[in-house]
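Progress note, sequence design subtask.
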């Protein structure tokens, strides 16, 4: 199943990773109420090629 993504920033429609910019190895971050940070496993972050708005992160099982 594939979903088409439309960039909410510039309106570009994206239906494959070929149309995304990928930043590899971006860690998941959890912020506590007191402001401290916890890092978890790294993900790939996908950004709009045109305006570089982050559109999503990879999902690993
Ligand atoms: Zn965009």
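Output:
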């Amino acid at each position: 199943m594939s979903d088409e993504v439309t960039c909410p920033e510039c309106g570009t429609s994206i239906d494959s990773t070929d149309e995304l910019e990928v930043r590899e190895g971006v860690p998941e971050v959890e912020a506590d109420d007191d402001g401290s940070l916890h890092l978890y496993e790294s993900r790939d972050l996908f950004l709009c090629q045109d305006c570089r708005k982050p559109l999503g992160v990879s999902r690993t099982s």
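The chain has one domain: 5-57. Work on this subtask will continue into the next period as scheduled.
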